[in-house]
Amino acid sequence: xxAEVKRAIRVSxxxxxxVGQELARRLGxxxxxxxxxxxxxxxxxxxxxxxxxxxxxxxxLALDELEPVxxxxxxxxxxxxxxxxxxxxxxxxxxxxxxxxxxxxEHPELVELAEQHGGRISxxxxxxxxxxxxxxxxxxxxxxxxxxxxxxxxxxxxxxxLDVAGIEPETVTExxxxxxxxxxxxxxxxxxxLNVAAALAMAGVGPERTLVEVWIDPAVTRxxxxxEVKADAADFSMTIENVPSDNPxxxxxxxxxxxxxxxxxxxxxxxxx
Length: 273
Fold this sequence. Notes:
alpha/beta, 11 strands, 2 domains, 6-stranded parallel β-sheet, Rossmann fold, 10 helices, 5-stranded mixed β-sheet
């Protein structure tokens, strides 16, 4: 019996910042089972030059032009653009990979839309680790989840929570806790910095019961996340130190996490739940 040959998955990238560029470079260079079909960016001329520089030959389209040429759209955008993009993709019964996970806490109706139209929302592990363990523990009972993030001052510049609190990150000279609250509050106060908190919350006990602390620490050069989970199945803790990408708010591992997720779509062996 001859095995059926799987059709390549058509993937487009919405946003061509640090993560989007790395994804375009890797997917454009060839990943088995993946066909990069298009990218979208606010500045088309700049995006065209960027693609030429990294050796990728795909069209630069408007956001609303991505869905028809895609099976999967990878979102690498500011959070405010997630809802309209996701709505179009999900209404067509297709998949969107969301990196701005905090936007999903603000728009839970997107999950219902996916259910109604046969679409799919995927949130990659991104800059965290151990989400497999958290989702497995959530099949039983999780008693508590806490994440403590330590970040260099430059990675928190422009965070709404700090603006409201009157904290200027670049003036901080010693470690200081600048936030303590729920994952929902963290995602709202740090929309470009703490999508990891939203992802952790959705994997485990939800955004209200997931506790988050944020520290500005001039002594660290990487974004450091420490997670503590207490559950019936296991108690565990995890720490990751992410090397920043060209965008100090985002770790290099974020793009690689998306590549890993996409590879599993065609893999004969997929490790991890």
